[in-house]
Amino acid sequence: MTGNKSPAGRWLELLKVPSGNPALTVAQFEAFSKQVPLLYFILATNMISLSWTHQGAAPDYLVVFLPAVMATLFAMRSLIWLRGRKRERTPEQAYRQLKATNILSFPIAVFCTIWSISLLPYGDPYQKAHVAFFMAITVIGCIFCLMHLRSAALIVTVTVNLPFFVVMLMSGEPTFIATGVNVILVTMAMIMILVSHYRDFRQLHESRNVLMLQQQALQEQNKAMQALSDENLRLANLDSLTLLANRRSFFHMLETAFNRASSSNGRLAVGVIDLDGFKPVNDLYGHSAGDKVLIEISNRLSTITDKRLSVYRLGGDEFGLLLQGDVAEGDAMALGEKVCELIAERINIGSGMVQVTGSVGFALYPDVGETGQEIYELADYALYTAKRRHRAGTVIFNAVQANELNRQKIVEEALVAADLDKELSLVYQPITCVDRRICIGFEALARWQSPRIGQVSPAEFIPVAEHNGRITLMTRMLLKRALKTAALWPDNVYLSFNLSPHDLTSPENTLKIVSIVLKSNFDPRRINFEITETAVMHDFEQASASIQMLRELGAGISLDDFGTGYSSLNHVHKLPLTKIKIDGSFVRNIHNRKTSFNIVKSVLALCYEMELEAIVEGVETEEELRILENLGVRAVQGYYFGKPMTAEETLKRLALQDAQALAS
C-alpha cells in the first residue's frame, strides 16, 4: 500500500504517470496535449535566442548544428501533437503517450542542461548571464507547460535545477550564486504551486465526474419519468378492456378533426354506435360474458380497412366513429351497414353463443353542426332515432331529425317553465273483463296542456322529462291525484299506474312512492304498477329490488309492452310480476297475420304456466276481440271498450255499469 512506502519510494511514485484512474488519465492527456506545442515553442525559441547571442563566441557545433537539430525535432514533435490533439484516445492510449512523454522529458532536460552549461565558458559576462537566464526561464516555462503531467514537470525541475545550482555555486561569482539560489527558491515555490494545481485538477475532475454521473442519473430519471408520463398519457387515452382509444381520446380527436375540416373546407362524419340487447347478456351470463362481447365487437370494428376511419369506445356498450377526408353520405351509410353486419354475427362467449345487434347514428359536417361537440350530439340524436325506428340499422341526421330535435328543444323549454301542478292532468282508460264485459280497472295516463305550445303528447314530453330529471316529480304528483280519484271507485276496480325507469333507480325514489300510497289510505292491493322492459334493463338489480319493495307493499306489477324488448322471458322469470300486458302491435290485423296470432298464443300459454294474468292492449275491433276471446284472453284494453276519459267520466261509467248490473 502507498501509505507504507518509504519517503524515497513516495518520491519515486511522484515521478511516475498515475494509472489508477482511467478517466483522470484521459483528462490529463486532453489538458496536457494543448500545452505540448507551447512547451516545444518555448524550448526552441529560448535555444535559438541563446545560440544567436553566442554566435562567434562558441563553436558552431554548439550554436548552429545542435540547436538546428533540436529546433527541427521540437517543430516535428509540435506538428505531431497538433495533428493528433482532436483524435480521441482510450485510457490505455492516453496512458502510453503520457508515459512516453514522461520518459522523453528526462533526455531532453539532460541535453538542454548540458548544452547550456557547455556555453558558460564562452563569451563575455552578458553572454554568461544569458545562459543563466536561459536555464531559469526555460525551467519555469517547462513547469507551467507540464502542470498537467506532474511527473514530467518534477523530472525536468530536478534534472535542470540541481546541475544549474551546482554550476552557479562553483562559478564563485556572487551574482551567479544569488541567481542559483533565487532560481532554486522560485522553483520550490513553483513546485508547490504545481502540486497544488495538480491536486485541484484531480479534485475538479472528480467533481466533474460526479456531476456528470448526477446529470446522467438525472437524465435517466427524466427519461424514465417521460416514459412513465407517455405511458400514463397512452393509458389515459386507452380503454383498458378493448384496447381501443377511449372517450377522452375521441373528443380530443373530434375537435382536432373538426378544426382541420373547418379550416380546409373539408368534410367529417361522426358516428355513434349503441348495442341492442347487450344488457340481457350481462344479466343472463354475467359481466365477464359481457366483457367478452365488447372485446369481440371491438376486434371486429378494428378489422374495417379504411384509412379515414378511427374507432373508439365511448363507454358501456357505446362506440364512436370518426371518418375524415372526402366523406359523402353514401360512405357513412355503407360504413354503418358494414358495422351492423359485423356486430350482428353470433359471438362465442365460452358457455354458449349469443347475438347482439347494433344501431348507428351519423352526422356529417359541413351539412350540419357548427362545433365538434354539436356534430356529436346530432349523431347521438340520429342514434336515438335509429333505436326507436330502425333498430339494428343506420340513420344519418337529416331534416326530419332536425325538425324533431327542434320540437324536442321547444318541448323541453316549455316543460322547464311549466307550472306542472296546473298544466298536468290525468285521463283513465278502462281495462275490461272479456267474459263479463265489465270494467275491472283503469290505467291512468298523463296529459299536458301547455299554455305556450298547446297539447303535448306523452310520447313527446315523457322522454324529455326523463332527460331533464323532472319525471320523478311528475310521477309523485300524478300518483297522488290518481289515488285520490281511485278512492271514489268501487273496491273491485283497481288503478293501473305507470312508473318510469327513474322511479326504480334508487331505494329513495321507490320509498317515496310507497310513502305516497300509505298516506293515501288507498288499499295497495288495488294498485297495479306498470313498468316497461326498458325500466328493468336500465339497472336490473336495483329495479328488481324496487319491484320487490312494491310487491311487499301489496301492489301488483305489470310488465308493459311485452314482446317489444330483448330477453323478455328472462325478465319474466326473474321478476316478481303479477301481470303481463301484451303490446297492441301484435293485435292489429291479428286475423290476417299468423305470426302475431302465434306470438299472442305463446305469451298466453306462458302466462298460464307462470300463473300470471294477461292483459291485451290495443283492441279496437269486434273481429280482434273475437279472436282473442277464442284464445282465452280474459282482460283487454283498447278503443273498442273505451277511450281514455276524465275522472268524472270514470265515475259515470262505473255508475252506469252498476245500474246495468242491477237491471240484469
Automatic annotation (TrEMBL):
It comes from Rhizobium rosettiformans. This is EAL domain-containing protein. InterPro entries: Cyclic-di-GMP_PDE-like, EAL_dom, EAL_sf, GGDEF_dom, Nucleotide_cyclase, Rev_trsase/Diguanyl_cyclase. Keywords: Coiled coil, Membrane, Transmembrane, Transmembrane helix. The keyword Transmembrane helix applies. Residues 408-658 form the EAL domain. CDD domains: EAL, GGDEF. SUPFAM superfamilies: EAL domain-like (SSF141868), Nucleotide cyclase (SSF55073). Residues 266-399 form the GGDEF domain. The chain crosses the membrane at residues 38-55, 61-82, 103-123, 129-147, 152-170, 176-198. PANTHER family: CYCLIC DI-GMP PHOSPHODIESTERASE PDEF, OXYGEN SENSOR PROTEIN DOSP. Residues 211-238 form a coiled coil.
